[in-house]
Amino acid sequence: MTADLQEPGNVLLPWRHHQNSYGLRRQKRDWVIPPINVPENSRGPFPQQLVRIRSDKDSEIHIRYSITGVGADQPPMEVFNIDPVSGRMYVTRPMDREERASYHLRAHAVDMNGNKVENPIDLYIYVIDMNDNRPEFINQVYNGSVDEGSKPGTYVMTVTANDADDGTTANGMVRYRIVTQTPQSPSQNMFTINSETGDIVTVAAGLDRE
User: Fold this and answer.
1) Which residues of 142-179 are buried (b: 16+ CB within 10 A; e: fewer)?
2) Which pLDDT tens digit goes with each residue over 128-186?
3) Do the domains 131-209 and 27-128 match in fold?
4) DSSP 3-state helix, strand, coil percentages of the chain (rounded to 5)?
5) Which one is the CATH code of 27-128: 2.60.40.60, 3.40.50.2000, 3.50.50.60, 3.90.1210.10?
6) CATH number assigned to the domain covering 131-209
7) pTM metric for this prediction
8) Which candidate, 40, 55, 42, 14, places its Cα nearest to that of 103?
9) Tell me: the pLDDT tens digits for 158-173?
């Protein structure tokens, strides 16, 4: 069986049979199709072909293809479907990585009587993150306190924000900065924030409650 990932020359053979001096034999282990990457928020058009699956036995007998798993015959239903004759598999709608980041499907090949002609193969589909979410603070308001007359470098508080995008990429990384300070006296920059941790500390002397 072949799996054509729509890239020139990139054809894999997970159900391939090999020829030796004794005739056809089954290879010891089925090949593994590499993960299929699908960018989220694609504008289509849909359905959009992802991969073509084909058994090399289809020149001998009529074969029907199907897929099973979450996103196919399990909720959410029909995110993916497959042409039972050609083996072309499609995604039917835009993907949202924050809703679901990956899918695991199994592809099947049977004859016209429903008899299995190949072992099922695993298909792993990963939704590629787009930078489509803004960081959001966990709390709307943070209250901190510091003694008047505190020395520069005195800890005040920590603010925390989360980003729903993929945290393993730059899309989901959160960085902090102080935009404005009120009041702006005795200095416009009385505090500084650690850009990575969100820790706020004093940076100048002169804090006076009165």
Assistant:
1) eeeebeeeeeeebebeebeeeeebbeeeebbebebeee
2) 988 878 899 999 999 988 888 888 999 999 999 998 887 777 888 899 999 998 888 77
3) yes
4) 0, 35, 65
5) 2.60.40.60
6) 2.60.40.60
7) 0.65
8) 40
9) 999 998 887 777 888 8
